[in-house]
Amino acid sequence: MSYLKITRISKPVFWIVMGRLIISPIIALLIIFLFGLSGITAQALFIASSFPTSRNSALLALEYNNYPEYASQAVLLTTILSSLTVAVVVYFSTVLFLEYKLTSQKLTDGIKLIFISIKGFES
Fold this sequence. Notes:
Pfam families: Mem_trans (PF03547)
InterPro entries: Mem_transp_PIN-like, Na+/solute_symporter_sf
Helix content: over 70%
GO cellular component, one term: plasma membrane
Number of domains: 1
Distance between the termini: 42 Å
Radius of gyration: 17 Å
Strand content: under 5%
Transmembrane segments: 21-51, 71-98
Subcellular location: Cell membrane
Structural class: mainly alpha
Shape: elongated
Low-confidence stretches: none
Order of helices and strands: HHHHH
């Protein structure tokens, strides 16, 4: 693993990174809303869902010779890119779950704030 060289990002690695950093927080958000979680519990679950792939997955892939190159690249790329995605998820978690009780009106207000923030970044 110490000689990892990424010349291009393959489709499997791309989907691993997308799944871990984008799809996983979306699924966590759906679960949070489905179960009606709120406050610190919702924030912790949402933020933890955006963490990068564990290096243990690369070690296990290397030990069992199960595509260790993909696993190593996934660990490296998710670790680098998670500096951006974790910051975004932390921001959204404070907007969505700042209050301890989540009502549909607060959820609507939170989503409006997110879109206002995104529009502010675009201009």
